[in-house]
Every structure is written in C-alpha cells, then in structure tokens.
C-alpha cells in the first residue's frame, strides 16, 4: 500500500526581507572598505617599484656616459639660434644620455647646430619616453599640443610639441637666479654653464662651470644624490600659470630637468604661505621670485620621493628629512640678482645634495 505524503505545512520558498537585504549590502560595503585600501596600497607599491626601476636605469645610463666621456653630462648646453648667435640654456642632459638608454635615434635626430627650441628640432622635443615617466605622475606622458595656445613657442616662433619628464638631475642646494657668495655654489652633479644671455644681458647663474667627473664626488657616491623625482603633475597643480611650462624633457633650463636641494622634498605641502589662506590655489611663494618652489623635488608617492644616488642605489627620502626651514631663509635684491641669507645650519637633505661639502652623514639620518 502506497503512502502519500502531503505537502501541507511546508514553508513555501521566499526571498530576502528588506532587513536581510540591507544587512547583506552593509556586509559587502564593509568588505569593500576593508579591501580597497589594500588594493590601492598594492597599486602604489607597483607604481613605486616601477619608478625605482626607471631611476636605476637613468643612473646606469649616466654612469655609462661618464665611463665613455670621462665626466657626467652638463645640466644644460648652450645652443644657437637660426642666425648662429649663441643663446642661453638649451637642451639638457637627458638629450645627451639618449644613446645610453636605447634612444640613439633621438640623438641622431637632433640638429646640434641650432638651439633645441626651434622647429627643426621639434621631433626631438615631442618624443615621449617611458623611462622618464613615473607611473604615479599621471600627466607626465601628456604631449603639449602644437596648434593652440598655451604652447611653448620656439626661438623661431615655431610651435613646439613638448613632452615631459618626472625626473631631474641634482644641481646642489642652490636657489633660482641668485648672486650670492655666502651660499654653496652649484656643487651638485649637473652643472649649468651660467653667465649672461647675450641677447638680453640677463644673468642666469654662475659662469664657466665644467662637467663633473666621478672623482669630484669626494663626499662619497653613496652620500650624494644623482637624480630626484620632479613630478610634473605636482608643479602644475600648484601653478596658476602655463601648465605646459615646467619639466620639458629636452630642456636644460633651470627647473626643467634639474632640481635643487635648497628646500626639502615637497616643501610646498608643509610650508604654505599667507597668500594661500585667502587663495588655496595660489603657489606657495616664499620669495618675491617664486620660481624656487618649482625647482624642488616633488612626487605623488605618499610621504616623500625616490632618489637615485651616485652609487646607483635608489632610496626613498621622507618629506620630514632634516632640512633648514624655508622660514629661516630671507631674500633681498631683484630679479636675476637675489641674495639669500640662511639663518640655520644646512640639514641632511642639503648635505646629500653636495658632492664635495665634507659633511658626515649616516644612513639612519634619513
């Protein structure tokens, strides 16, 4: 005899109640909130590792150049205009290094009989190279358009399609446009020719500097900075002027592919000025000549910047590294003739920027 079981009394299938659904959503939100920082940290770690690798490759290229030529490249070169007259700062040391990081064709494309900033050299200016771009500097890979302003205009009034660099060479703890015997002169690695612009008579740094040999680094290669980060996005985010201006990869002008250790890394974050209290977007100008802040080491990595040293190592230096305070620095004079007075001893960061200052620095100081 078959026995039939009745389904009476069974609970019918049902969906989530509203409360249960809200609980599930809340749990998912908590998990996302917990995992998102970890994902972001992992991504930043990958970006920082790629940045470190870029800087190691630049340091290696620089040492190969020194081995072949007997010195490191100059921070800038003196170019000539279409009339053959000498100009002021011209193409920078990255252009001289192109053959040493597998960009020999770029060097061959450069017309060295003319300044870099003419239409004949626009091909070189527009070339973008991954080795010069930090992954955290998200705008470094942009190319300045060549049709509408604001655009960099060459000396022959030809528009230049410029690309940028996230890195810059150390020229020591000296400020922008100065005339001062009290402060260290350009005792970093990448010297500028300096002198006067024959067209205008303007002073643009001490004259008659020569390329630096590795034997001139008497402070020790492990205690002297070779390259630092100089993030294009950090500079234009604080600048109300021409966003295409700073960090031209091919330029040897001050603050494009050279940086100063006169101020600590990312100093504009900490030492905001009174004008920012009323205008948060204003650049943090410490002196009447506000270009000093554009020449400091900057990055988008949290807490500091990567630096390649003359021994080829790459180290992360925090924003809080020992430094003289910008508030202890005063300036007098006028454009191209600033005289700076520092009322504090130089800090560890300034010492790391000198090649022959005789400072004693231990690794645990930074």
Can you walk me through this structure?
By secondary structure, the protein is of the alpha+beta class. It has helices at 18-69, 93-97, 104-109, 122-126, 232-238, 267-270, 274-278, 348-352, and strands at residues 76-80, 86-92, 167-170, 225-229, 258-259, 304-309, 314-318, 329-332, 339-342. Helix content is 24%, strand content 11%.
List the helices and strands and how they pair.
Layout: H1 18-69, E1 76-80, E2 86-92, H2 93-97, H3 104-109, H4 122-126, E3 167-170, E4 225-229, H5 232-238, E5 258-259, H6 267-270, H7 274-278, E6 304-309, E7 314-318, E8 329-332, E9 339-342, H8 348-352
Features:
366 residues, alpha+beta, five-stranded mixed β-sheet, two-stranded antiparallel sheet, 8 helices, globular
Order of helices and strands: HEEHHHEEHEHHEEEEH
Number of helical stretches of at least 4 residues: 8
Q: Count of DSSP E strands?
A: 9
Q: What is the average per-residue confidence, as pLDDT, rounded to a whole number?
A: 76
Stretches where pLDDT is under 50 for at least 5 consecutive residues are 146-151, 197-208, 239-244
Strand order of the largest sheet: 5-3-4-6-7
> Radius of gyration in whole Å, from Cα?
26 Å
Structural class: alpha+beta
Overall helicity: 10-25%
Our estimate of the beta-strand percent is 5-15%
How many strands, what sense, and barrel or not for the largest sheet? 5 strands, mixed
Terminus-to-terminus distance: 90 Å
Domain DUF1559: 40-321
Protein name: Type II secretion system protein G
Organism: Aquisphaera giovannonii
Pfam family, one: SBP_bac_10
